[in-house]
Amino acid sequence: MWLDWAVRVFTSHGPTVIMPTWFCSREWFFHVGRFDEGGKGVPEDLLFFYEHLQKGGGVFRVDHCLLLYRYHPQAATHSVLEGTIWNHRVRFLEDRVLSSWTSFTIWNAGKQGKKLYRSLSPANQKKVTAFCDVDEKKITKGFYTYEESEERPKPKIPVCHFRDATPPFVICVKLDLTGGAFETNLGTLNLKEGMDYYHFN
What we know:
- By secondary structure, this protein is of the alpha/beta class.
- The chain has helices spanning 5-8, 26-32, 44-54, 82-96, 111-119, 122-125, 136-141, 181-187; strands at 2-3, 59-60, 104-107, 128-133, 143-145, 156-161, 169-171, 197-199.
- The strands form two sheets. It has a six-stranded mixed beta sheet with strand order 5-6-4-3-7-8.
């Protein structure tokens, strides 16, 4: 079964498909460029996965048990900081999506949406036309001020209701956490995932 990497590759804390389940030809492995053996704290599986996609690779699912993975507390995965993975995810989003957009809306005027905004390059921050949300308190306030900015005056980004927002969207709302309310709201807009919006949560 073919899995469309383009629409969900920016989610979670690493590759869309966990590394112990991967397999590929030796030729493809060398074509992609092997793993980054930069040492402790390098998310080599995430970097390899991104490079695989950059070089035109895809993901197929095989419905058979091909490997037994043994987890242990001393695994190197624990040395990779969440912030390191976040930074790689943001750069990949910028390279693969935001570089081709002239403007976009961040769906979530809360903690995750603001964190994404602050993590973007200055050029991509300028493309953010608004935050959108359903929280009346955030909408009533009307804007988000980027206090950490060195610009004067400090950037103020409007906050509006999702129905009043303009696509495309980068969505920073976790799926399956609102009893279906978020998914219903998104569905009312009749948008196409991978074109009008991407999930980054």
